[in-house]
Amino acid sequence: MSWKSRGAESASKSAVSRKWTILFCIGCFCAGMLFSDRMWSVPEIKGIARTVRHEEETPQYVSGCDPTIKDVEHEQKDVYGEVSKTHHAIHTLDKKISNLEMELAAARAAQESILNGSPIAENLKIPETRKKRKYLMVVGINTAFSSRKRRDSVRATWMPQGDKRKKLEEEKGIVIRFVIGHSATSGGILDRAVEAEDKKHGDILRLDHVEGYLELSAKTKIFFATAVASWDADFYVKVDDDVHVNIGTLGATLARHRSNPRVYIGCMKSGPVLARKGVRYHEPEYWKFGEEGNKYFRHATGQLYAISKDLATYISINQHMLHKYANEDVSLGSWFIGLDVEQIDDRRLCCGTPPGNFICIYFVPFPFNYLGINEDCYGISFGKRNFGL
What we know:
Layout: H1 3-57, H2 59-62, H3 67-116, H4 128-131, E1 134-142, H5 148-156, H6 163-172, E2 174-182, H7 189-201, E3 204-210, H8 216-230, E4 232-240, E5 243-245, H9 247-255, E6 263-269, E7 299-308, H10 309-318, H11 328-335, E8 342-345, E9 360-362, H12 375-378, H13 384-387
Helix pairs in contact: 8-10, 8-11
């Protein structure tokens, strides 16, 4: 065989192989496209639909991936929590108000039953204050451990003793007590002496207070708080133990002001503010009253004054925040500044007025009959004419 024949045969074989190669490639491409359409097109659409539906059904699982959505949900939870707390607080407050209204209604019913003389149900609870009778006035005589002679002088003149004092309380509604606290060493000889004196006379009101001249303002607060808790009266009176009182005239004077719930009665004055140290009645807080030489606001002198029940209750409730000045009468007057209080300046309560037109006079060492003052003048006898009520 010649080389020409061999060349022609090899050329024909290569041409055939190229054709089959091209056809095979085209066939593989078509098969690949067909296979790709069947395997990937439908599953991809179903997967997307299933994913969207899953996100719509369960947003709480994918919300954590977005910090903005998480913050919004956190704020919504905080708002819901605050609203829930507010509703709970309102419900609790309504319950407390309802309970208070029930107690008030029960107390009013008990009071009406007592006034009308009707029997009271056993299951009706009566507050302790509602069980007390109503008094005209409670007179507290401010005294000290060293003032035994003054107390005896008061007992011998205008303050009834024994059954007469009880009758004064029951028939006239007038309670009179000496007011004293405790010594710095509680249970010492001074306290035991006062206890023995009270056991004999039964006319001393002991306060939870340590006695001291610089503590008179605190003692006054505690007296009114103790008195208003012990006796339900229209008026509460403070008097010094070196003053003797026409108790009948005082009772008649106070009775005329029963209709005023906030009344402050006394011998009103406006003395100078003493800034210089070492003098009596020195005011350490003088700078609060303006320039040196200024005067105090109007207030009752400390020898004798009276306040109504509402004012005594106000002192009792706010005693922990009422400011105390050096002088007790100034302190009392300052507690009523800013309140709707009627101040009554009764000059008969100025204890220096002469006999014949007075309610009180200072203690004098000679017998009271020297001034013509007797039991009838002080209302110790219980006739209506002499008592003046």
